[in-house]
Amino acid sequence: MSFWFPSLVFANVVPAFTSDDISALGPPWLLAFVYTMASLVFGFVIREACHVPWNFWQGIVVVIAVSSQVNLCENLVVP
Question: Is the pTM of this model over 0.90?
């Protein structure tokens, strides 16, 4: 479920926008981009600062980036 959660949120959000309020999509996309880039930077910092096994060297960066995206999507859902 958590793997498909961002797609489910996107599928529910897209029909809600009309041509009049499409400009409101800019700030959430910018925020998501900033969160993703910040998590990638933190992933590289953690990889360099901490001991990571050689076979998981690139994986730690991906895991950190994906985990922040899931947290972002969970916080954007309005009950």
Answer: no
How far apart, in whole angstroms, are the C-alpha atoms of residue 26 and residue 51?
38
Query: What is the spatial distance between Cα 55 and Cα 32, in angstroms, rounded to a whole number?
Result: 29
Residue 74 has pLDDT above 70, yes or no: no
CA gap 9, 15 in Å, rounded: 11
Q: Please report, for the chain, how many H helices and E strands are present, in that order.
A: 3, 0
Q: What is the pLDDT of residues 27-43, one digit of tens each?
A: 877 887 888 888 888 88
Could you give the 3-state DSSP secondary structure of residue 28? helix
Amino acid at 35: Y
How large is the C-alpha radius of gyration of the chain?
A: 16
**Rounded Cα gap, residues 64 and 36, in angstroms:** 9
Beta-carbon contacts of 68 under 8 Å, excluding residues fewer than 6 positions away, are: 35, 36, 38, 39
